[in-house]
Amino acid sequence: MQCKIGFIGAGNMAGAIINGIVSSGLLKPEEIAVNDVRAAQVESYTSRGFAGCDTIAQLVESCAYVVLSVKPQNFPDVLAQIKPAAKPDTVFISIAAGMSAEYIKKALGFDAKVVRVMPNTPLLIGCGAVAISRVDPTSPEEFAFAKSIFAAAGQVEEVDADKMNEVIPLNSSSPAYIYLFAKVFVDRAAELGFDPDVANRLFCNTLIGSAKMMMETGKTHQELIDMVTSPAGTTFEGLAALGRNNFEKALTECFDDTIRRAYELGK
Description:
Layout: E1 3-8, H1 12-23, E2 32-35, H2 39-46, E3 51-52, H3 56-62, E4 63-68, H4 75-82, E5 91-94, H5 101-108, E6 113-118, E7 128-135, H6 140-151, E8 154-158, H7 168-172, H8 174-191, H9 196-216, H10 221-228, H11 234-244, H12 247-265
Parallel strand pairs: 1-2, 1-4, 2-3, 4-5, 5-6, 7-8
Antiparallel strand pairs: 6-7
Helix pairs in contact: 1-6, 8-9
C-alpha cells in the first residue's frame, strides 16, 4: 500500500483537513491513509474508501507526507513510534501548538523535512485561517503541496518558522476570544428581553460585515472605528466604558499570555 498522505490522529481537525482535500478533488480517498488509537475511528474512514493503518510505522512507511495531528502531550510517544520507519524524503506536517521543528528533528534522529502549521477550528466548516511555515530541507515544491492541503479548507498565510508560537493568538486561539466577546453581548441582549437567536444572528452578521470592511475597504482599523463613532454619541460612550475597564490592556495581556503558554508547552 502506497499513499500520498497519511494522518496520525483522526480527530475533528484531521477530519476537516481530509474532507477539504477530498471535496476539492486534490486527492482521492484511497490516496489518504489514517491511523488512530481508536479502531472505530479508523473503521469510519476505511468504510468510505480511505486506507487504514494498524500501526504508526506502517503509515509512515506508506506515505510521502505524514500529518502529525495529535495533541502535544502525545508527541513523545508518537515520534518514538515514527523513528524506526522515518525516511529522509518523508515530509512531516505538524499541526500541534508549541512543537518546534528542532524538537521533531531531534526526536527522529536526523534532519527531517518539517512543515509547521497552525490551523483554527473554522477549518471545520471550510472557513479556516491557517498559518504555515517551511523548514529546511523541505523543498519549495513539497511546501507548495502542503499549502494546497490546507487551502482546500481555508485561507493560508505563510509565516516565518520562528513566529509560529507568536501567530497562535492571531488565528488559532482567537476564535475562543471572539466567541467570548459574542457571548457577553448576546447574553446581555437576552437579559434585556431579546430573543437569543435573533441577538446572535445580528451580532454574528455584524462580525462578518465588520471583517469584510477590514479586508476590503483599505481603511485602517482606527479609520473604521471613527466611521462608527460620533462625538458624544452612543458608540463614543461604549468605547469610553471599554477604556475605563482597560480593555486594550486586557487584550494585550491575552495575546502575550497565549504566546507565553505556547512556549511553556512547547519543545
